[in-house]
Amino acid sequence: MSRVLIILSLLAGTAHADDVFAVCKAESKTAVSGKGKMSIAVYYPDSFPVTTNPIMRNAVGARLATAEKAIIVPNKDVEAARKLVEGRKWNEGGEACTGIAPSLIAVLGLKHTNLATANASVECDAKGACTLNVDLERHGKPTAERWIRYSAPLAGPKDKVETYTATAPKLVAKGEPPSHPTGGLAVTTLPSGKVTTRSDADGALEIDRVMESSPKIADCAPKGRKAGDIRGFWAEWKLSARGTGFQATVNPFGGNRDPANDKAADCLRKAIENMQLSCPRDGRPLTVKTAICL
After folding, report:
1. What is the per-residue pLDDT across 108-125, written as a single tens digit (0 to 9) for each?
2. Fewer CB within 10 A of the terminal residue: the chain, N end or C end?
3. What whole-number distance in Å separates Cα of residue 243 and Cα of residue 238?
4. Would the pTM count as exceeding 0.90?
């Protein structure tokens, strides 16, 4: 490739990276690194039809581990991470965040760097035939590879733990679950009337999900627009060691000086400076750049 073509390619890449709408359509940075052998933690909600036991849990875990070429996260690791989250800490010797606790996924991901979590549920049809579903989220993978559902018809009564032990080896991959959380994942079209953010900090999925669900940020959207009129902004700000936003500057994309955009930018600046987030992993202030589309 000639030098001119190399320069043009680099410029094209920069222009794409600086397009706030293209950035908003891309993925947030994952909460875990995705490196190394996959580790799977299986979650059974309170609504699960039976009280699980080690034999049943090991049977489900073994099937998933074989299918995903993974290992199962030991329960002691889950409990240790849960304890840290309850104390709003990243590690045993660290300080507590003043705002939001780190997520269990992010804390577990410090040790299990290619973490996946699986939610188990039972679905029954009108005739009483029931299916065990285990929805796996691979937290270090891109959107296209992130979700998979494993399913099998129950091999007996749904109120007997032995049924699930017998069903576990029959679990097979059935494609992406019909519904799952989409915050922070890649999209082809930006949703109208909703906030989408993409930040450049390590593990920014946690930051972006908080920002996207913030009523204060949503309230900054310019009023009286037609459907599909999405505005873009660049925010540069700092995340304190205690988990608060400060020193924010927000500018409309492309220098669009519409008075409504200027008003929205000032509103976004104030919202960011009043945000409560989990503190940075290393306990040091962090400089963040965020694309905001709303």
Report:
1. 999 999 999 999 999 999
2. N
3. 10
4. no
